[in-house]
Amino acid sequence: MTVGTIVFSKRGRDKGRAMVVLKCECEYLILADGKLRTLEKPKRKKSKHVQITNTQVEMQPSCGRALQDADIRKYLKKYNEVPEGGK
Asked: Residue 85: pLDDT band by 50, 70, 90 thresholds?
């Protein structure tokens, strides 16, 4: 598991939501989605409660500024879209 990996929550209130790994602490991950869980208030979740993807997010945007919540939302947009006919 590396910083910048996109994961899906398998347990809890955020089940099914895509998030980005900000930090790894032993068996815990620090996650943000840019909307409910911002960079200022990230989610701490056990690594066994997430589904890992092979997709990486660039943690340093090309323009040289720091990563922002809007960047995370943009990266996760296609993962959090509700399919047609769904809730």
From this structure: low
